[in-house]
Design brief:
With 231 residues, this protein is mainly α. The chain has 7 helices and 2 strands; from the N terminus they run αββαααααα. It has a two-stranded antiparallel ribbon.
């Protein structure tokens, strides 16, 4: 069974990878020309992206079309890694390295930042968490564990509302001052991201220390759990 931490990294990592691809498409459409500087806009002339200031990005590549191609290529590698290989020994480190490369080739600022955060979290996918049991009470641990799937769902929805949800609302409804909507959506997205990380750790901790959390009256303890496994 996949750990909650791995599912968290894969879910939010998929969103970051798709956002990087979106940046790359906008850069390719700008044609075979040199950028005005290191900081560019992925969609400078698109009214749809106006409330996000044209989707700023950074590139060290002296050609916008090549920048977009590299952004899409690195984003695809990012997607594959975060969903298939991130649980490996150096999976988190590689994810952070891909995030840095994505930053330098036009993948925007948000996707690489999200990738670095997820890379740090991924370093704990296979790490023992039992010591945290001494800090969290069993009731709090169970509550946080039960909260994880709800937090994950709300977190993914918040990121989707930030992009493309807020843009779609502005495009179809129209708002004279949409900055507040983008700000609230961003705060909600990052808040729910960190809540999902914490509750994911709690869920994995409960799974790791399941033998220590026996329901009252069950007549089982650590010894009986070990015996049942050995039989």
């Amino acid at each position: 069974m996949r750990s909650a931490t791995r599912v968290t990294v894969a879910s939010f990592g998929t969103l970051a990878g798709l956002a990087g691809i979106e940046h790359g498409i906008g850069e390719i459409l700008q044609g075979n020309r040199a950028p005005a500087g290191l900081v560019i806009q992925s969609w400078p002339d698109a009214e749809f992206f106006r409330i996000l200031n044209g989707e700023p990005a950074l590139t060290i590549v002296p050609n916008l079309r090549l920048t977009g191609i590299l952004a899409i290529g690195v984003s695809l590698l990012f997607l594959v890694w975060t969903t298939v290989f991130v649980q490996r020994k150096y999976g988190g480190v590689v994810l952070m390295l891909l995030s840095l490369i994505l930053l330098l080739v036009g993948g925007g600022f948000g996707p690489p930042l999200l990738g670095v955060i997820l890379g740090l979290v991924a370093t704990r996918i296979n790490a023992p968490l039992a010591r945290a049991h001494t800090v969290l009470s069993p009731d709090l641990l169970r509550w946080l564990s039960a909260l994880w799937p709800w937090s994950l769902t709300a977190g993914v929805m918040a990121w989707l509302f930030l992009m493309p949800g807020s843009l779609l609302i502005h495009a179809f409804v129209g708002m004279t001052n949409p900055d507040w909507m983008v700000t609230i959506a961003m705060l909600a997205a990052f808040s729910l991201l960190f809540t999902t990380i914490v509750t994911g750790f709690a869920r994995d901790l409960q799974r790791q220390t399941g033998a220590l959390h026996v329901r009252p009256g069950s007549g089982q303890g650590v010894g009986s759990e070990i015996s049942s496994r050995s039989s």
